[in-house]
């Protein structure tokens, strides 16, 4: 089996799974309980929070645990909107945001908020001039992802941060789910960023856990009310084992980050060099402006889901677009926002590499790719 779908989810590191199992079976007290077992769990949550914060170069009190990226995005968008609605109801998001941001903003537009969409260029970059023109006195929130999940474009977060330095009352949210462990932290978690969303299963932890970075002094309304966990920010019993697993996985990933991404860049170069030989192949990802692990391509005239199943028949696992949207059979929204025709966008296939892949798998994939490509000649 060749797994080239790491942007959808990553295999759990064995060490992270061991941590999860040990905490689940040995330390199962409720962190809110006053007895010794509760204190043990509480200490693990606190230690995990400290470790994650240190890896990001932030203070521990800026890390709030959630169930994953989608909750973190929903909370950042809705929580900010309701917290700041007295100061304005205008929100800006980019045209290539993940559905968790896009649909949250859409829902807010039905609750009396106004949402503006910042356009992107043909490579999938946010147009900074157009973005600045959208800012208004009543703008309370902007949300731009760090790395696009469908084509891998690295968004200009540092440049946006400089632009927003003149708008201190605007909350700046970054969906950093695809950036964690892939980019240097300074490239997506600048001092100007107020909120950032993260997901554990994108960095080799178990599913169902993530966190929200909230800059000290920033306020957002909670989505969950109840027992007052996470210092009143998110009421629900903490998933102690998953939190510990995520802290372990993130540490392991970031420790070998430089070596891993050097290896992945070499694999990407080999794939792109081979792809250049096929005239009916469309390359959607920017070779110069994207993360090295995501390559989105299409075979002219062949729908993405057809290509995905053709590779699956050879035990090679790819994706069409965002895993959250792929079963809906929709064209990649990012590609449509980049100005591509629906016909071309529907051919999109996303290949996303991980630290467990090697060059032999790349060579096998390229062999199978030629077979799939040749079989589509009549369609092309």
For this structure, the quaternary state is single chain
Number of helices: 12
Helix amount: 25-40%
Low-confidence sequence ranges: none
Order of helices and strands: EHHEHEHEHEHEEEHHEEHEHHEH
Straight-line N-to-C gap: 28 Å
User: What is the radius of gyration computed over CA atoms, rounded to a whole number of angstroms?
Assistant: 21 Å
Instruction: Give the tally of β-strands.
Output: 12
The description of the largest β-sheet is: 7 strands, mixed
In terms of DSSP E residues, the strand content is 5-15%
Average per-residue pLDDT, rounded, comes to: 93
**Would you tell me the structural class of the helices and strands?**
alpha/beta
Form type? globular
Topology:
Layout: E1 2-3, H1 14-26, H2 36-56, E2 63-66, H3 69-84, E3 90-94, H4 99-109, E4 114-118, H5 128-134, E5 139-143, H6 157-164, E6 171-175, E7 195-199, E8 210-214, H7 240-255, H8 257-275, E9 281-283, E10 294-299, H9 304-312, E11 316-317, H10 333-337, H11 342-345, E12 349-352, H12 359-375
Parallel strand pairs: 1-11, 3-4, 3-5, 5-6, 6-7
Antiparallel strand pairs: 2-8, 7-8, 9-10, 10-12
Helix pairs in contact: 1-7, 2-7, 3-4, 8-12
Description:
There is one protein chain. With 380 residues, the chain is α/β, with parallel strands linked by helices. The protein has 12 helices and 12 strands. It has helices at residues 14-26, 36-56, 69-84, 99-109, 128-134, 157-164, 240-255, 257-275, 304-312, 333-337, 342-345, 359-375, and strands spanning 2-3, 63-66, 90-94, 114-118, 139-143, 171-175, 195-199, 210-214, 281-283, 294-299, 316-317, 349-352. The strands form 3 sheets. Strands 2-8-7-6-5-3-4 form a 7-stranded mixed beta sheet, with helices on both faces. It has a 3-stranded antiparallel beta sheet with strand order 9-10-12. Strand 5, helix 6 (157-164) and strand 6 (171-175) form a beta-alpha-beta unit. The two termini are 28 Å apart. The mean pLDDT is 93.
